[in-house]
């Protein structure tokens, strides 16, 4: 969803924008500049203890809609990286919970014994997962579309997110699977 806003800028900011934007329209340059500086990511997530409560129709639908549909999840919203914390918000930007980055353990992009890939399905996008205290979470981050008319899709691996949190995964599972996976 896109919205239009009107803002007033100081003259020196306009000069800065004009000196750096080249042929890009001012509004697009400002939007791109803000996006590059923000640490806000659109995400889907599910906790490990919620997976057994997932209905079979939700599970099958999530796996069969891959790679362009939404993967298995119970929550939709955003993560803002604010200092040493990951702030989770719902789609209305109501804060749900916060995670101190120091409590993140065993970050990986992979399937496991709890979040499994359905055999021979198109569900070939493993989640980002990590433990935080006693809970484990699985996350999918929306990628940016390459063209304005192409929507991004959700995947566990997102280099921009990993750079922003400054934590490297212990394991990265590729989307290439053997027959025994």
Strand fraction equals 25-35%
From the spread of the alpha carbons, the general shape counts as: elongated
Main structural class = alpha+beta
| Helix count, DSSP H or I runs of 4 or more residues | 4
Q: What distance lies between the first and last C-alpha atoms, to the nearest angstrom?
A: 37 Å
Rg over alpha carbons: 19 Å
What is the mean predicted local confidence, pLDDT? 84
Q: How many E-type strands?
A: 9
H and E order:
HHEHEEEEEEEHE
Q: Uncertain regions: pLDDT < 50 for 5+ in a row?
A: 176-181
Report helical residue fraction.
Answer: 10-25%
Biggest beta sheet attributes? 9 strands, mixed
Task: Give an overview in words.
This protein is an alpha+beta fold and 181 residues long. 21% of the residues lie in helices and 28% in strands. Residues 176-181 have low confidence and may be disordered.
List the keywords:
181 residues; alpha+beta; nine-stranded mixed β-sheet; 21% helix; 28% strand; disordered C terminus
Give the structure's gist in a few sentences.
The chain is an alpha+beta fold and 181 residues long. The protein is 21% helix and 28% strand.
Produce the secondary structure layout:
Blueprint: H1 11-20, H2 26-37, E1 40-47, H3 56-64, E2 75-82, E3 85-90, E4 95-100, E5 104-109, E6 128-132, E7 135-142, E8 154-155, H4 159-165, E9 171-172
Parallel strand pairs: 5-9
Antiparallel strand pairs: 1-2, 1-7, 2-3, 3-4, 5-6, 6-7, 7-8
């Amino acid at each position: 969803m896109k919205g239009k806003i009107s803002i007033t800028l100081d003259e020196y900011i306009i000069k800065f924008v004009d000196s750096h934007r080249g042929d890009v329209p001012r509004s697009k340059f400002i939007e791109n500049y803000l996006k590059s500086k923000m640490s806000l990511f659109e995400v889907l997530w599910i906790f490990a203890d919620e997976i057994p409560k997932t209905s079979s129709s939700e599970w099958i639908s999530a796996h069969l809609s891959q790679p362009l549909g939404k993967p298995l999840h119970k929550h939709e919203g955003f993560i803002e990286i604010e200092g040493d914390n990951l702030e989770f918000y719902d789609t209305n930007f109501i804060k749900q919970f916060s995670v101190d980055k120091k409590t993140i353990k065993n970050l990986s992009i992979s399937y496991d014994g709890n979040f499994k890939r359905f055999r021979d399905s198109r569900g070939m996008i493993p989640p980002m997962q990590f433990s935080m205290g006693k809970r484990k979470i699985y996350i999918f981050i929306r990628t940016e579309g390459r063209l304005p008319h192409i929507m991004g899709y959700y995947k566990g691996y997102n280099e921009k997110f990993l750079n922003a949190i400054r934590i490297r995964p212990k394991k990265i599972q590729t989307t290439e699977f053997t027959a025994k996976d």
